[in-house]
Amino acid sequence: MKTKYDVIIAGGGTSGVSCAYIAAKSGLSVLLIEKNSYLGGAITSSLVIPAMKTSENAINTDFFNELYKNLSEINGAITYCDGNKGWFNPELTKIALDKMMLDTAVDVIFDSYIADINTEGSQILSVYINTIDDNNRTCYYQELLSPIETRYLIDATGDAKICQKLNCEFLNKNFEIQPTSLRFIMSGINVEEFSSWLMELDKDRDVTTACKIDGYTYCSTAYTWDNSKWALKPVFERAIADNIITNEDANYFQLFSVAGTPDSIAFNAPRLLHNESYMEGRARVLRLSLFCRNYLKGFENAYISSIADSIGVRVSNRVKGKYIYTIDDLLTSKTFSNPVVVSNYPVDIHSKDKDSSTLQKVYKEYQLPLESLQVDGYNNLFVIGRCISTDFKSQAALRIIPSCFSMGEGLAKYLANK
Ligand SMILES: Cc1cc2nc3c(=O)[nH]c(=O)nc-3n(C[C@H](O)[C@H](O)[C@H](O)COP(=O)(O)OP(=O)(O)OC[C@H]3O[C@@H](n4cnc5c(N)ncnc54)[C@H](O)[C@@H]3O)c2cc1C
Asked: Global pTM?
């Protein structure tokens, strides 16, 4: 570890790893500080897969392509039948990211967080780092007793924890929330049998798809209690009547095969309300797994193989930046001189109430400007990921994994060229 870096990034999640990798590849010295014992953030700790498909004309895709390449080499990524390369294996993503950081000489410290920040006016000067497990690590991280200087500080914590520490201004309002989810994976599934049964049952092929890749069947489907025409609705209704699951357990159910483990399926469920805990989440996971075993073909011998370490958070804090990006900017495809993201992903707002979730299609590509990553009131403080400077609705489109990768990479390239 050094005593001075070009870039210090708090948070080695989706946007943080992209920024760290590209910044280091572009010649900057980078320190990446992660509170978990592995990188990847939502992808690895909340089991969020796959990265959603985005526009043909997406910019800042070098990191995505490199991750895909590294994962493919260890059987940890597939290209799905719709051409989406974002089907990653969460466990193998941890390993691929370790290698990518080592390859580019990013200094990574795990189980750690920024405890204090030295500033002078609007300039960040240095940070103090704490390890979560101080007793065991003080010898290992002797250097951490002194402040570490940085030219740029980047908040990639998902919840803008660094900006909170600095008492920055926030844009979020209490009522602007979306449910969270505690995702899980089941294994021991006969995916071929399940997908032929489902494809036969479900004529709405928009959401239900299956294909063979390297001799194995991969599939996906989605259901929300807002959608009256979905084929699995009667199956859910039967399970509710049989007291296997509750009405709320059936509020959202989406599944994707997992790259590299062809007998496994990852669930974007259960969806939780803000006051529901991990315990309630895990109880829901158990009920949903019993539902799968008893009501879905191909799941007879299936079992829970993984429950996410962290609840997946769709929206939390949004920091006020030099530019506040709005839903009008997005829907009118406003252009900017320094875009960091180009996408056409829909505005995806989950609601806890029945018939209230919306998925608004976007017909033209939109751009996110660099200025939405520059924290208001500071010269060298930036924010990336789901907590950037946007209004509630545009965040609901911009938070997907490829856009978080893209903003991390766009910022890294900007800093390298300054
Ligand atoms: C339930 C759910 C389903 C989703 N489904 C999809 C999907 O199918 N496809 C898709 O493309 N997108 C999906 N998304 C969106 C996407 O996964 C996230 O918006 C995106 O990954 C967020 O990236 P991030 O960099 O902001 O945060 P994260 O990836 O969460 O990274 C934040 C990192 O910061 C670390 N951290 C936090 N605090 C500190 C601290 N104080 N010090 C150091 N480190 C810290 C965390 O441990 C974490 O590693 C989904 C999101 C959710 C919640």
From this structure: 0.97
